[in-house]
Amino acid sequence: MGSEGMQSKSLWWVGLFAVAMAYLESAVVVYLRKLYGISDLILSVPPFDPQIGAIELGRELATLVMLLTVGWAAGTRFQSRLGFSVFAFGVWDIFYYIWLRVFIGWPQTVFDPDLLFLLPLPWWGPVLAPVLIALLMVIVGALAVIKDEHGLRLLPSFMDWATLAGGILTVLYTFMADALAALPADTQTLSQLRPSEFNWIVYVVGLALLAFFVWRMGKPAHVEITHGTE
Alpha carbon 217 to chain centroid distance? Predict the structure, then answer.
């Protein structure tokens, strides 16, 4: 197998990178809470600051670049590279909450609400919601890497892509429903919004679509045997 046979072993190293990256982000959140005197992420969010908002956008973009970069460095073909990136994203997201629990005892339960992102619109949801999506990302990312290692290329059909897109849009809607309902609104208004009750029914529909896509990618009928490199 050569170097390609080492890809599945590299999942451990990519996972370790994601765990360490999650530690850094969790530590920054703890520092910000202390500096701003935030005791509750939903009730105590400080007023919108344009400079901080621009930096936050850059931080989120930098996070994505880091996850994509480690994936491209670890993989050998497009499938494994994307798989490593998705896998790392999932591990990072899960351990972000694990480290916060270790540092400050939060979240106390998986149903505690969290302010997930501020840009492009405020995202809210119980901790369990992004964690379940992250678990699916870990599974499908590892699946893509392992199948690529064995010379198997994933072949999503048009309906598979439609299922994935539908699932992503549905869960995103549940996270941003309050912000979307407030549009058109300026940034200052959006920063003052607070979440209403989370729509679990719609979320579960979106999660089921995502889980169905992952299940389909695990079926032998959705791969082709391929050798060589891209």
Answer: 19
